[in-house]
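yo

u said u wanted the structure for the complex thing, so here. seqs first:
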Amino acid sequence: MSNASERGVHRDHSPLLPTVSAGVVGLSFLTFVLAWLVLFPILTPSTQLVGGVTFYDVFGLAMLLCGVALVGSGVASRTGYVPATPSATAGVTTGVVLGVLGFVVTGLFVSQTLGIDGPMGLGWFLAAFVGGAAVFVATVAPREDVGSTVPIGAFALLAGLVVLLGVIGDSWTWNPSGLAATFSGDMAVPVVALVVSLLTAWAGAKAYEGFGARGRQLGAYMFVNLNAALMLFVLFVLIAFIVYRGLPGVLRGAAVGLGTGPEVAFGLHLPFDVPFVTNSYGLRNDVNGVLPAVFGTIWLVVGAVVLAVPTGVGAAVFLTEYSREGRFTQVVEIATNGLWSTPSIVYGLFGLAFLVPRFGNSASLLAGQLVLGFMLLPLVVITTRESIKAVPDSYRDASAALGVNQWQTIRSVVLPAALPGTVTGIILGVGRIAGETAPILLVTSSSMSPFPASRFVPRVLSGFQFTAQPPFVTNTELLQASSALPYQLYALITAGVGAGAGSDADIDPWSTALVLLIVVLTFYAVGIASRSYFRRRLQE
Amino acid sequence: MSKTDTDSRSDTQTESQPLVDHTVEGETSEEIRDEWTNYDFDGEAKLSVSELNVYYGDDHALKDIDMEIPEQSVTALIGPSGCGKSTYLRCLNRMNDRIKAARIEGNVEFEGKNIYDADANLVELRKRIGMVFQSPNPFPKSIRDNISYGPRKHGDIDTGLLARVLGRDDGEREERLVERSLKQAALWDEVNDRLGDNALGLSGGQQQRLCIARCLATDPEVILMDEPASALDPIATSKIEDLIEELSEEYTVVVVTHNMQQAQRISDQTAVFLTGGELVEYDDTEKIFSDPESQRVEDYITGKFG
Ligand SMILES: Nc1ncnc2c1ncn2[C@@H]1O[C@H](COP(=O)(O)OP(=O)(O)OP(=O)(O)O)[C@@H](O)[C@H]1O
Ligand SMILES: [Mg+2]
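structre next:
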C-alpha cells in the first residue's frame, strides 16, 4: 500500500493517518497554548476542574494521548497498514536535536532522580551520553516514518505518565545543587509540556502528509508558525499586562464631556480630561500627573531626531556616493557599528564630562537631546547607507545620461528611493532612545525632581527668543533641566513608593510605564505612516 | 556616399584573392581593415572617433576603432554578443567613465572638439548626446515626472513652489513637452489618461518607449540607442523603427541591434563589430548586406557564425 502512492501526485485518500495526525497536531496546539497560559500565571495548574481533575492531569493526559497516537502512526505506516511516502531516514539534523534531548533527559534522570554521580562525578555524563546516542540511533537508523515518530512518541508517553502519576506534580520541587533556585511542579510541568507539544505537533504534521518531502514541508511550516505565534503571544501578554496594571492609574479622575478638559485656546476646552496626563505634581492636586515628564521625553526625542537625521543622511550620502569604497569607508563603517553598540551610560558619561560644563554647568534638555542625537546618529548612517546602496545603479545611469549632475541625481532620484529605509532606521532608533534612562539621569534630569511642578514643563516652542546680537536666537527652556518618563519610572521603582505617601495622589509606576509605552508607540505610528507615504510615492 | 571604388589595391585584394585575408584565423591585417572601415560619405561628420581603445582591467574590449558618424542619418552597429557594441556606444557620451574598471584611450570628436579633453563639460555633453539603454530604466516616479525630469533639472522648466508664487509656472509648457515626447515615442495613445501613474507600472515595452520619450524630451542632437526594440513586440518594434527613421531627419541616431532585417530597414550605414572588439567593416547598409568585403562579415550576416 505504501508503494501505491510513492509517486502519486495526489495524496492517497485513506483517512486514517491524516485523521489521527490532525488530532495529534490539534491536541499539541491546545497543550502549547495551555502551557503558556499556565507559565504566565494566568491559570493556576492545581485548579480543580470538573471531577477533581487538575491542569496537571490535563497536561499528562494530552501528552500521553499524543505519544500513543504518534507511536501508533509510525508503526502503522511502517507495517504498511496505512499509506505513506516516507524517506529512508528522518535525517541527521532531527537525530541530533532528539539526541540532545535524550542526553538531557537521561542525564537529569540519572543524576537527580537516581542520585548517581559515578567516578569523579562523571557517571551521569556517561549515562547521559549513552542515552543521547541511543536516541540518535533510534531516530536516524530506521525509516523516516518510525524515526520521526517513535522516539518523540515515546518521550511524550513517558512525560505524560510521569505527570499523570503525580511523580512530578504540585508538591514536587527540585533544588539543583550549586544553584540557589528552586523549581516547582507548576513551573516544570508546563515547560515539559511546551517542549513535548512542539515536538509532537511537528511529528504529527509530518505524519499528516504521509512523511517524505511533503511531510517535512508541513512539519517545518507547523514549527515556524508555532514559534511565530509564541512571539506574538509574549508580546501581547507584555502589553496586556502593562495596560492591565497601568490603566486604572492613568484613568483616575478622568472625565469625558464638553468643557471638562483643560483649556487649549480662546476659552475652548478639550472634551475630555485625563488628569494623570495633563497634570503636573502639586500639593493641592487631587491627582498628580506626569505632564512634565511626557513633554521632557517628547522634546528629547524630537531634538535627537532633528540633530541626527540631517547629519546622518548627509554622512551616509558622502560615504556612499562620493567617497570611494576603500580603507577609509571601511574604518568609518566599523566605527559606526561600534558606536551603535556602545552602552548608553558611556554616552551619558561623555555628555556629563563635555556637554554639561558647557551649558551653564547644569543638566539641561539640550544636553540630553545632543547625547541622544549622538546615539541615534550611527543607526541613521548605517540604515541610510544600506538603503542608498540598494538603489539600482540603472537609476543613476539614466539620470547621468540625461545630463543631470551628481548632486541633483542624489537629491531627486537616489534619496527618495532610499528614504523608506532611513525612516525604518529612525523608527528603530527612536524606540531605543525614547526609553533611555542612563544618559538622561546624568545630563538632563540630575538636578530635577522626577515629579516636577507645572512650571517645569518644558515649553520649548514658546521659549525661543530673538535678539539683535549673536547668537540671535536663544532658548532658555532648552537650557533647563527636565524630567523624562524613563527617569521618572526609574525613580519610582528604586524609591519603591510613589511621589506621595500612599495617598490617592500617588503616581503608580505601571501607569508611568503605560504612558511611556503610548508615547513610544505614537512615535512608531508617525514613523510608519511617513514611511508608507514615501513608499507609496515610489510605487503609485 | 560611394565607396572608394577607384582604389585599385582594394580591388585586387578582394577580387583576385577573396579568401586570402587570414579570415579563418580571425585577425584581419591592419591595412585591409583600415580600408574596409574607411567609409566615405557626403556631408558632415557629427562624431569622429579615432584610435579608440577601451580596456576593462586587462581585458582589451575595443581595439583601435576609427569611425566617422555622419550627421542626420541612422548608423547601425551590429555584431555578435560581447563584441563591444554597448561599450562603443557608451564611449560616445562618456558613460564609460562611470565604470570603474574601464580605461579609455583615443579621441572622440563631437563637432570638432574632443569630448575626452580635460575641459569637456560632461553635463552639457550628455544633454546633447542622449542615450537609451539596453534594458528599460524608468525612474520610480510618475510618467509625467519621468519625461520632464531632464528639462526640470536643466532649469528649462520650472514648476517649483517659487515659480508658482512668482507666476512663472511652466506647467503648461511641461504638459506640451510631455505630450510631444510621448507622441514621438508612439506611447501617447496608451498612457495619456494616466500621466500621473508610476512608470514602473508600465509593461516592459512601454517602459522602453518611455525611456525613448524621456531622452527626446531633453532635445538632444545625437541619440544613442542600445537595442531599443529588444523588449518589444512586432507592432511596437515597427513603431520604434518608424520613429527612428523620422528622427534621422533632425537628429543623428546611432543604434545597436541584433536584428539584421531591422538594421537593413532603418539604417543608412552599418558598422560590423566582430568578436575581440574590432570594427571589421563599415559602409553603406546596402553594400554591407549585399556585398561585404570581408568573408567574416559575410559569414556573420548570413548566420554562419556569431
Ligand atoms: N562593466 C564591465 N566590466 C568589465 N567588463 C565589461 C564590462 N562591460 C562589458 N565588459 C566586457 O566587454 C566586452 C564587451 O561588452 P559589451 O557589453 O560592450 O558587449 P555587446 O556587444 O554590447 O554585447 P551584447 O550584444 O550582448 O549586449 C565583453 O567581453 C564584456 O565582458
Ligand atoms: Mg550590449
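The two ends of chain B are 29 Å apart (CA to CA). Residues B 85-86, 134, 226 surround magnesium ion (ligand 2) (CB under 6 Å).
cya
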